[in-house]
Amino acid sequence: MKFKKIISAVSAAAMLFSLAGTIPTETAEAASDINYAEALQKSLFFYECQQAGELPDWNRVEWRADSTTDDFIPGGWYDAGDHVKFNLPMAYSASMIAWGLYEYGDGVEKVGQFETYQNNLEYALDYLAACDLGDEIVFQVGNGTEDHTWWGPVELYAYGINEGSVYKRPYYTASEGCSAVFAEMAAALAAGSAALKGKSSKTDGYLEHAVHIFEMADASKSDDYYNDSNAAGFYRSSHFYDELFWAANWLYIATGEQQYLDKATSYIPNLGLELGTSELKYSWGQCWDDVQQGGMLLYARSTKDTKYINQVKKHLDYWNNDVEKLDGGLRWLTTWGCLRYAETAAFLAAVASDTLLTGSDAEKYKDFYETQINYALGDNPLNFSFEVGYSDSYPLNPHHRTAHGSWKNDIYEPVTNRHILYGALVGGPNQDGTYEDDRNNYINNEVATDYNAGFTAMLCKMVDEYGGQTDPDFPEPETRDEEFYVEAMIKQSSESGITLSLKFTNHTAWPARVVDNLSYRYYMDLSEVIAAGFKPEDVAVRVDRDQSAMYSDVTPAQISGIQHYDGNIYYIEVTYPDGRAAMPISTGRCQCETMLALVFPNYGTGWDASNDYSNIGLNEDEGVISHNITVYENGTLIFGTEPDGTTGNGSISANPSGSSDKPSVSDVKGDLNNDSKVNIQDILLMKKHILNISALSSKNLKNADINSDGSVNIIDLVLMLREVIK
């Protein structure tokens, strides 16, 4: 571990000021040159990247927006690089994050991250509490098998899964046969209640749900129903007594009621044993499927029983002495997600050292846990941080659909992720210490909420001991590529006219979105037509292909006649009233092609495409992204340059760059797209909402309720139509 050298004169001065009461006394002997506060700041940001449902105002991710808002239980975290809400790993993650705050909340507050930490923790706990329906409990939202058939941004999930048709996600409930997931949910809510006690008004509610869900977990003592559900293909439960033990310990801490400690004691005879022995298991590691070691640490602290303190020590000695040690000190337990195990074991060692163990044991374990966290943050032979966005060298291509930003349902395109998935802890190195930054390498580059859980908790310990400085400019604005444009190609050109393939393209990613009322203009110089004695409107415009008309549920493109721009320059405008004509969900849907033929009047000759503004740079060999074919959003130029030099400045529906602020919500009745106007675009949005094609966010429902009767229906649509017609 590297330490900053403190110049003796500065140390002496600090001591004098400290004695005088001018500055606080330093509690740590030395501070690492790794900035743990920044690492924690970014790890919390990762959980904001995972947020499902309607995003809170404090979400800082410029490439995220509301998603899966019509889930049976909205909110919560998407599990990994996919979009399912698996309650077993989500609850485990929340319980570990809560534990970190419970132990080292003062340190988190010291570096100014308590509010952000609390917000992110509560976001998951609110969802878990909402899953408690009384007589049954929701344990999963989304189908993992169906989810994994599509690789795209979650904001367009409803369209992507069914290639443009609206998809409604299933959810899974039970009242019994789900002991592991129920107990894990109870543990998370109890741990959250304990961690946030005195800081949040929600703790009593969390505890109430924890008690009820635990009762249901304990009543049936079985995982039969859960392991026969869709969850089993992704997060199958190996056992459930460890989760019951874990939950009972947290309930004892949260309530102080002896009955829960007694419950924990009653589960011990059923806990895992070392293979072929009667000895309680001390090998393996704390994870979403095995929380026995974390539960044992809590139990040993509560009972102060030497037998169980020694059991904790056995586990830590196993990690320190028996788990394979890579060059650089990382303990490598297993192939898949090796860092999550090492960082979680490090956290258990830190807590045990601070609460149960003293002397040489505590010092030995301190070296172990600091080595694990420092390895992850770049103190390793590769000089590489496995936390995305931390330091100068880190993973660029974690396995994450929305961060990748593919517009064509393709894990390989684009080559490099369009977004930085700040804070995500990737799987980690191979057994030989090598690492491959490949999106399709699930071993090295998978990310998940449970990967970050023990890591985040461990960072709480490190900021508590060493402090650090968060980055005041985080997150910095991303460099954006073009989101809307036209890819054009000449299909045929002669003196009789020209035939064009014009592919309107939606490659949105800040966030990925469907935008109505987009249009583009193809400009032409008709000097030769006018010189031949014809009027510009005599040019024949023939539509050879209109892809938008192929979709029965999409309003087709509107193609104008010849429109005057300036002098002898004219244009044709193609408008898409319905943004679903081009969506970044697949190869076939991210572009919408219109094939236009412009024919010299009376089928004569004399057409000269060489002087046409939008023809510059086009060819017959390949499609060209032309800045001379301008794109508009609600009439505002957003891409390209008009013939007079006016240039677009990017989509007006994009999130602000590098800001936590999402587009503001209008307070104008009837304004549903936040442009402070009420027009046909709002009518279309209202129609889609009423027909259940796409739902309005709750933020805009207030404006949709025109007559303020508490519901949005056909009456409001009629009132909006009257307003627009006026």
Say what oligomer this is: single chain
Helix content: 25-40%
Using only C-alpha atoms, the radius of gyration works out to 30 Å
CATH architecture of the largest domain: Alpha/alpha barrel
Into how many domains do the coordinates divide? 4
CATH fold-type name of the largest domain: Glycosyltransferase
Poorly predicted spans: 1-31, 659-664
Structure write-up:
This protein is 37% helix and 12% strand. Helix 10 packs parallel to helix 12 and helix 20 runs antiparallel to helix 22. It starts with 7 loop residues before the first helix and ends with a helix. 52% of the residues are buried. The chain is built from 22 helices and 16 strands. The N terminus is likely disordered.
Q: Mind sketching the topology for me?
A:
Layout: H1 8-19, H2 36-49, E1 85-86, H3 87-110, H4 114-130, E2 137-141, H5 144-147, H6 157-160, E3 171-174, H7 179-195, H8 203-220, H9 232-235, H10 241-255, H11 258-267, H12 292-303, H13 306-322, E4 324-325, E5 331-332, H14 338-355, H15 359-376, H16 401-404, H17 442-445, H18 449-466, E6 484-494, E7 497-506, E8 518-525, H19 527-531, E9 540-546, E10 558-559, E11 563-566, E12 569-576, E13 591-599, E14 624-625, E15 630-633, E16 636-639, H20 680-690, H21 698-704, H22 714-725
Antiparallel strand pairs: 1-2, 2-3, 4-5, 6-7, 6-14, 7-13, 8-12, 8-15, 9-13, 10-12, 11-12, 15-16
What brief labels describe this structure?
16 strands, 4 domains, 5-stranded antiparallel sheet, Glycosyltransferase, 6-stranded antiparallel sheet, Immunoglobulin-like, alpha+beta
